[in-house]
Amino acid sequence: AQSVAQPEDQVNVAEGNPLTVKCTYSVSGNPYLFWYVQYPNRGLQFLLKYITGDNLVKGSYGFEAEFNKSQTSFHLKKPSALVSDSALYFCAVRGYDQTGANNLFFGTGTRLTVIP
Amino acid sequence: GAVVSQHPSWVICKSGTSVKIECRSLDFQATTMFWYRQFPKQSLMLMATSNEGSKATYEQGVEKDKFLINHASLTLSTLTVTSAHPEDSSFYICSARAAGLEQYFGPGTRLTVT
């Protein structure tokens, strides 16, 4: 079975400071990992993904994520936070559900608030 | 990037009526479409997966007779909430995927049942 854990419901960071949103995963086989961002009353926007290759993945809006196989983590990072980064962030892993279909499994989300 | 649209973006309906939500992939053909439900401050719950031209596969606990899903073409899927009740009020998000691509999400539909 596959699962994703986002241990922090809320992350607060001052504008200009680096930010990290944590994600750990559990999956059999090679992990396909994703980060999405959701703004209020909006759908999810794709930020970045890890399939294979370099452990440091660069994505949209200056975000990056580091894949760590030994720690089964895929933390989202940004060197300098902006107020406009305030949103809900979801980590996801691709895997097979109970019906055998290949789907995305989402974490519970982390609300990021960047304080001016 | 690929664009997925949903219509309507919000809808208010009376208890007992049915509501249809459309999901369209605008610039790609979606072999698979997904419907999610999101409660306030919670993650997305996958309701069902549909492949074009075949019946939807529903997740455990989702009533297929209440949430009717039709994937009539490679660019359109519809979710009909039948005999809606206030507890069906939620944010419904569709997602579309072409073979080999990641999933792209629609902007969501806010359903309020009074």
Features:
heterodimer, A: 116 residues, mainly beta, 4-stranded antiparallel β-sheet, 0% helix, B: 114 residues, 11 strands, globular
Poorly predicted regions of chain A are none
Which percent range describes the beta-strand content of chain A?
over 45%
Largest sheet of chain A: 6 strands, mixed
Task: Please count the helical segments of chain A.
Answer: 0
Describe the protein in words.
- Chain A is mostly beta strands and 116 residues long.
- Chain A has strands spanning 3-5, 10-14, 19-21, 24-26, 33-38, 44-50, 56-58, 64-68, 73-78, 87-96, 102-106, 110-115.
- In chain A, strands 2, 5, 6, 10, 11 and 12 form a six-stranded mixed sheet that branches. Chain A has a four-stranded antiparallel sheet with strand order 3-9-8-7, with no helix packed on it.
- In chain A, a hairpin with a 5-residue loop joins β10 and β11.
- By secondary structure, chain B is mainly beta.
- In chain B, strands 2, 4, 5, 6, 9, 10 and 11 form a seven-stranded mixed sheet that branches.
- Chain B is globular.
- The relative contact order of chain B is 0.34.
- At the A-B interface, β6 and β11 of A face β5, β9 and β10 of B.
What's the helix and strand layout?
The complex is a heterodimer of chains A (about 120) and B (about 110).
Chain A: E1 3-5, E2 10-14, E3 19-21, E4 24-26, E5 33-38, E6 44-50, E7 56-58, E8 64-68, E9 73-78, E10 87-96, E11 102-106, E12 110-115
Chain B: E1 4-7, E2 10-13, E3 19-25, E4 32-38, E5 44-51, E6 57-58, E7 67-73, E8 76-81, E9 90-97, E10 104-105, E11 109-113
Parallel strand pairs in B: 2-11
Antiparallel strand pairs in B: 1-3, 3-8, 4-5, 4-9, 5-6, 7-8, 9-10, 9-11
